[in-house]
Amino acid sequence: MTAVLDRAELEASPLADLHAIADQLGLDGFRRLRKAELIDRIVGEEDAGASAGKEDSSGEKSSSEEEHERDGAERPARGRRRGGRARRGGSAARSDEEAKPAARGRRGRGAAEEEREDEPESDGGETVEGVVEVLGNGSAFLRVDPPDPSDGDVYVSAAQVRRCELVSGDRVAGPARTPRRSERYSSLVRVERINGAPADAVSAGTRYEDLPVDYASERFALESKDPTLEAIEWLTPFGRGSRVVIVGPPRAGKSETLRALLGALSGREGLELSLVLAGVRPEEIAQWQAGEPAPLAALSFAASPDAQAQAVERALDAAKRIASRGGDAVILIDGLDGLPPHAARKALAAARKLRDGGSLTLIATATQTFGGESTVIALDVALTSTGRQPILDLAQSGTLRPDLLVGEDGAAAITKAHSEALDASS
């Protein structure tokens, strides 16, 4: 059998994955070896053809992935929506079954060798295709009948998820090997295609930051009876790829407005929604977590600015991958005040409409603008405190190039409304 273990991939793999591979190859004393020595042993064993049933290391579950797969199966990433349905944690039956593909304790070398003797050689010939659902522990399942789980689903290792930068909702195809005795699910040997394109081409694509961009031109119709959301939709419109900041002093209603916008955008076909809480009150975390989608990260104001910035950056990295592959992602952040100023501006700059591609829309709260916003939604604390609606401070709000979102007549109506608001305040 042709060698399939690549030294570069092994060096990039965690030690737990290497231990799993060494156990499969039947290497003696592999736990006592340093990582470099262990890789030498694995590559040497592979080159010598000592095991006819060896698998691509990218198709094996590591011991750490197996031990923690129950946690991941019970709590898959819930911060995104696709096809109008939320990615939820599995039912009790689902989590119990997905938690046991292989996690039954480590066996001795003799048992492992006996199992390999009874297994068919990895043919990697049966190509499977499905939609990725990333779990909380970093591994994933390929749902062959999305979005519901089924016995035909295929396990995807965390190493493959990282290497191919897979996100929930990606459609992936590739060969799979049959499950071993202690596994319920087949495992993906390698990723060959991502969203219809060769995996290599996707991985080697142009950097997100280097892709050409355009002004946002596809407006989000909020379709809400809430007076403030109606005012936002027509007087401070925003669209796919906009950089939106909801500004105002404390108790102006920024978080409530963000929550209302999340509800208005939820459940839309092909729109990936993510929520990040950075520097909020503990009570607000509990309130946000009770809704859908659940936050990807939830940090109170006690977290350091760097920790808050890292949580936002991780969410943005996933959204960038969605946008660069032609999808539309929306990230809502409450809020930007706790981030270092350069990190807040970097987060804002990530939002854009890619020319002939997808989009990343960012909607965040802050006490003041940072510069570079395409839409500013300013709230009036006096209106909020007296219960009057809408709470929009129109004189301080605005949208860059509204004509692209609502047409020339709509832009003229916005200009007239601003003029009237200024006259009323003078």
Q: Can you give keywords for this protein?
A:
2 domains; alpha/beta; single chain; Rossmann fold; 5-stranded mixed β-barrel; 426 residues; 15 helices; OB fold (Dihydrolipoamide Acetyltransferase, E2P)
Structural account:
With 426 residues, the protein is an alpha/beta fold. It folds into 2 domains: 7-103 and 112-203, OB fold (Dihydrolipoamide Acetyltransferase, E2P); 213-425, Rossmann fold, CATH 3.40.50. The protein has 15 helices and 18 strands. Strands 10, 11, 12, 13, 14, 15, 16, 17 and 18 form a 9-stranded mixed sheet that branches. Strand 15 (352-354) and strand 16 form a beta hairpin. Helix 2 runs parallel beside helix 3 (35-48). The longest helix is centred in the C-terminal third of the chain and has 23 residues, at 403-425. Residues 49-123 have low confidence and may be disordered.
How is the secondary structure organized here?
Layout: H1 7-12, H2 15-25, H3 35-48, H4 63-74, E1 81-82, E2 85-86, H5 92-98, H6 109-118, E3 126-134, E4 140-143, E5 154-156, H7 158-164, E6 171-177, E7 186-188, E8 193-194, E9 197-198, H8 199-203, E10 213-214, H9 227-235, E11 243-247, H10 254-265, E12 271-280, H11 282-289, E13 297-300, H12 305-324, E14 328-334, H13 341-350, E15 352-354, E16 359-366, E17 375-378, H14 381-386, E18 398-399, H15 403-425
Parallel strand pairs: 5-7, 11-16, 11-17, 12-13, 12-14, 14-16
Antiparallel strand pairs: 1-2, 3-4, 3-6, 4-5, 6-7, 6-8, 8-9, 10-15, 15-16, 17-18
